């Protein structure tokens, strides 16, 4: 039953897994596209640590890179929840493709849409929805969780800025045509000097370093960036000077729901690969699924995934409803990344020896899930953030 | 060259494991995943391609059944059809619905909409009838190009390459005509997200078979549905003589 049908029947509180007709159609379309078109590329991209340009092209063609962008800029004009469903479906097949789509939609596109001047939107949004990938550059070698102690400087010279510094762990860097760089215009003001700059790929002095050789999410390029006296015009400041830290926090609050969706899809996709095996594999005269110990483990994991799904969907709906959602977003990201870790580990065990080989897909899910507890806010950061909210809740 | 009617049928998804109802009256459909019949997807794709090549102006997607079939029509709209027609059939009429009634509905609609082409899938994967296209053509007294693996419009004629038992047959037929799509005709596109959004604004008209003067009474009664017998193990023999001896022994020859 769709959300529209529920409303027509007067059901005021439909279950969380109720989608509008449009959301349902999008999810089904992306599910089909991912399972049929993307799946054949996954193994090779992982092995070669390289995202196939065909894959990126097809993401743009399907309208998956500009989900919330207004159709006037070539986007799909849909909602945040649709983005969440898309990321989940992509992650069931490949977490690297999902993260590319997630960063584009929840970080880059949102920043331009919310903060861009008419000229900036004109220049970038139509490219972001049709053929250009974006990267978000906050972290540095010396500042990860302690993001605002970043050292990249932007010095003003008349109508342009000269930016010097280096960034690390930048996703999509190999493919990006535009970089949103967080730099400090006034270190004496501490984090209140952090400003967001739009840096085009072909800017002189911008060097994209060699990508990391990673345990998982290998098809997603993660590179260091060197900014050597790069000149950025004043008109390329996104939003207001010194407000960059606010924008970063704001976007990351939303982005973490996207990561929750990625981890959720990853867990579900892995589970969907492992359970059929347990129904086929026979030992001691019966399916291994029929052993009580296996049934209990499988049911436990299924429950965790369901709980993770509800946390993720609810955080997304809260945000869409304009209600406070930060604590819930932290919970979703924290919980789903833990669930992904549990699920993938168990799935390998359920598949036994074959689960441990690269001939079967589960070992990749196991490697891919690990970053979930680390990026876009480590588990410890999520927990501390939640604790701050909980503390306030008892302030009477 | 203006309008093409495309039929889309909502069927149990091809990947689902089919189960027979305990009372053997049919197969279980409740709670089972349904999608557009794969051959209907190919038909929609062909119609949309003809429109993109500017041979036709409008593609109308038609489906017969209860409210759920509107999902199938929406998918057709998301693939590029311009508008939809939902012919409402439910309850006993829907259960007894077969190629003849559908053909009558399509024939009536083809006349009403002044269609130049009716494109259908060659068969549905649930009943495998492979009759609707042929019956529709007969009722309209139009030429038919069935099992099409290639369609080319040439002025007022259509060149159709047909997949037949002996290979490929190429025919040229005049329009208006009925075509049925075979597997290799094309590869259906995925509905892109922007097209799904656009599909929301496209219109789906509702009507009943009676509005088209069609009676839904079935001349066919399903007596019983059974699963195919479980495959029994075979027997391997060493020589041809053994094979002949065994075949003689069990009365086959």
Automatic annotation (TrEMBL), chain A:
BP-aspect Gene Ontology terms: carboxylic acid catabolic process; fatty acid metabolic process
Cofactor: FAD
Domain Acyl-CoA dehydrogenase/oxidase C-terminal: start-end pairs: 242-389
Pathway: Amino-acid degradation; L-isoleucine degradation; Lipid metabolism; mitochondrial fatty acid beta-oxidation
Annotated Acyl-CoA oxidase/dehydrogenase middle domain residues: 135-229
Transmembrane regions listed in the UniProt entry: none
Reaction equations catalysed: 2-methylbutanoyl-CoA + oxidized [electron-transfer flavoprotein] + H(+) = (2E)-2-methylbut-2-enoyl-CoA + reduced [electron-transfer flavoprotein]; butanoyl-CoA + oxidized [electron-transfer flavoprotein] + H(+) = (2E)-butenoyl-CoA + reduced [electron-transfer flavoprotein]; (2R)-2-methylbutanoyl-CoA + oxidized [electron-transfer flavoprotein] + H(+) = ethylacryloyl-CoA + reduced [electron-transfer flavoprotein]; 2-methylpropanoyl-CoA + oxidized [electron-transfer flavoprotein] + H(+) = 2-methylpropenoyl-CoA + reduced [electron-transfer flavoprotein]
Transcription among keywords: no
Record's signal peptide: none
Keywords from the UniProt entry: Acetylation, FAD, Fatty acid metabolism, Flavoprotein, Lipid metabolism, Mitochondrion, Oxidoreductase, Phosphoprotein, Transit peptide
The UniProt record lists the keyword Nucleotide-binding: no
GO cellular component labels: mitochondrial matrix
Cellular location(s): Mitochondrion matrix
Main location: mitochondrion
GO MF, any single term: short-chain 2-methyl fatty acyl-CoA dehydrogenase activity
Subunit (UniProt): Homotetramer.
Family recorded in the similarity comment: Belongs to the acyl-CoA dehydrogenase family.
PANTHER family, alphabetized: ACYL-COA DEHYDROGENASE, SHORT_BRANCHED CHAIN SPECIFIC ACYL-COA DEHYDROGENASE, MITOCHONDRIAL
Name this protein carries in UniProt: Short/branched chain specific acyl-CoA dehydrogenase, mitochondrial
Organism: Oncorhynchus mykiss (Rainbow trout)
Lineage: Eukaryota, Metazoa, Chordata, Craniata, Vertebrata
GN (gene name): LOC110531877
From TrEMBL, chain B:
Entry function: Heterodimeric electron transfer flavoprotein that accepts electrons from several mitochondrial dehydrogenases, including acyl-CoA dehydrogenases, glutaryl-CoA and sarcosine dehydrogenase. It transfers the electrons to the main mitochondrial respiratory chain via ETF-ubiquinone oxidoreductase. Required for normal mitochondrial fatty acid oxidation and normal amino acid metabolism. ETFB binds an AMP molecule that probably has a purely structural role.
Residue stretches in coiled coil: none
Organism: Oncorhynchus mykiss (Rainbow trout)
Cellular localization per UniProt: Mitochondrion matrix
Protein name per UniProt: Electron transfer flavoprotein subunit beta
Keyword Metal-binding carried by entry: no
SUPFAM superfamilies recorded: Adenine nucleotide alpha hydrolases-like
Cross-referenced SMART domains: ETF
Keyword Electron transport found: yes
Subunit structure and binding partners: Heterodimer composed of ETFA and ETFB. Identified in a complex that contains ETFA, ETFB and ETFRF1. Interacts with ACADM.
GO cellular component terms attached to this protein's record: electron transfer flavoprotein complex; mitochondrial matrix
UniProt keyword terms in alphabetical order: Electron transport, Mitochondrion, Transport
Main localization (coarse): mitochondrion
Family: Belongs to the ETF beta-subunit/FixA family.
GO MF entries: electron transfer activity
Domain Electron transfer flavoprotein alpha/beta-subunit N-terminal: from-to ranges: 24-216
GO biological process, one term: amino acid catabolic process
PANTHER family in alphabetical order: ELECTRON TRANSFER FLAVOPROTEIN BETA-SUBUNIT, ELECTRON TRANSFER FLAVOPROTEIN SUBUNIT BETA
InterPro entries for the chain: ET-Flavoprotein_bsu_CS, ETF_a/b_N, ETF_b, ETF_beta_N, Rossmann-like_a/b/a_fold
């Amino acid at each position: 039953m769709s959300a529209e049908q529920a409303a027509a029947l007067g059901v005021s509180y439909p279950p969380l897994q109720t989608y509008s007709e449009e959301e349902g159609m999008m999810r089904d379309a992306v599910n089909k596209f991912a399972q049929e078109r993307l799946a054949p590329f996954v193994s090779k991209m992982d092995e070669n640590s390289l995202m196939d340009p065909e894959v990126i092209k097809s993401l743009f063609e399907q309208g998956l890179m500009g989900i919330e962008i207004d159709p006037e800029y070539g986007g799909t004009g849909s909602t945040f929840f649709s983005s969440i469903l898309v990321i989940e479906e992509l992650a069931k097949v490949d977490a690297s493709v999902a993260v590319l789509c997630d960063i584009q939609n929840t970080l880059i596109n949102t920043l331009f849409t919310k903060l861009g001047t008419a000229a900036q939107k004109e220049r970038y949004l139509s490219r972001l929805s049709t053929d250009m990938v974006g990267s978000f550059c906050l972290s540095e070698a010396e500042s990860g969780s302690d993001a605002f102690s970043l050292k990249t400087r932007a010095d003003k010279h008349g109508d342009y800025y000269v930016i010097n510094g280096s960034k690390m762990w930048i996703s999509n860097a190999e493919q990006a045509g535009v970089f949103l760089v967080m730099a400090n215009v006034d270190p004496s003001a501490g984090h209140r000097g952090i400003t967001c700059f739009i840096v085009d790929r072909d800017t002189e002095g911008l060097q994209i370093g060699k990508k990391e050789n990673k345990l998982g999410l290998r098809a997603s390029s993660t590179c260091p960036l060197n900014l050597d006296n790069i000149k950025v015009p004043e008109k390329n400041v996104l939003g207001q000077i010194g407000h960059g830290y606010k924008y970063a926090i704001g976007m990351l609050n939303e982005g973490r729901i996207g990561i929750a969706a990625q981890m959720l899809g990853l867990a579900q996709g892995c589970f969907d690969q492992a359970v059929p095996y347990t129904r086929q594999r026979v030992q001691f005269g019966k399916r291994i699924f029929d052993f009580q110990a296996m049934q209990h483990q499988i049911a436990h994991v299924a429950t965790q995934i369901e709980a993770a799904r509800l946390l993720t969907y609810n955080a997304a709906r809260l945000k869409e409803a304009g209600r406070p959602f930060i604590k819930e977003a932290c919970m979703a990201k924290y919980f789903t990344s833990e669930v992904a870790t549990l699920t993938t580990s168990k799935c390998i065990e359920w598949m036994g020896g074959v689960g441990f080989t690269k001939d079967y897909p589960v070992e990749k899910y196991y490697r891919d899930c690990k970053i979930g507890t680390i990026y876009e806010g480590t588990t410890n950061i999520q927990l501390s953030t939640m604790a701050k909210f909980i503390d306030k809740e008892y302030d009477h | 060259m203006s309008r093409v009617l495309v039929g889309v049928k909502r069927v149990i998804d091809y990947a689902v494991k089919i189960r027979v109802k305990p009372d053997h009256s049919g197969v279980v459909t409740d709670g089972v995943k349904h999608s557009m019949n794969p051959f209907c997807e190919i038909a929609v794709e062909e119609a949309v391609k003809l429109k993109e090549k500017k041979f036709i102006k409008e593609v109308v997607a038609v489906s017969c059944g209860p409210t759920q079939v509107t999902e199938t029509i929406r998918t057709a709209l998301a693939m590029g059809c311009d508008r939809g027609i939902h012919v409402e059939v439910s309850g006993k009429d829907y259960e007894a619905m077969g190629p003849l009634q559908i053909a009558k509905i399509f024939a009536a609609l083809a006349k009403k909409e002044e269609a130049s082409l009716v494109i259908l899938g060659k068969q549905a994967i649930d009943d495998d009838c492979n009759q609707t296209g042929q019956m529709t053509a007969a009722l309209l007294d139009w030429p038919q190009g069935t099992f099409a693996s290639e369609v080319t419009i040439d002025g007022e004629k259509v060149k159709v390459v047909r997949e037949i038992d002996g290979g490929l047959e190429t025919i040229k037929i005049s329009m208006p005509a009925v075509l049925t799509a075979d597997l290799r005709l094309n590869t259906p596109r995925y509905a892109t997200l922007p097209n799904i959004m656009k599909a929301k604004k496209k219109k789906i008209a509702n009507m009943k078979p009676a509005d088209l003067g069609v009676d839904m009474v079935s001349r066919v009664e399903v007596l019983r549905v059974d699963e195919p017998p479980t495959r029994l193990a075979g027997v391997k023999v060493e020589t041809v003589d053994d094979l002949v001896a065994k075949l003689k022994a069990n009365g086959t020859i």
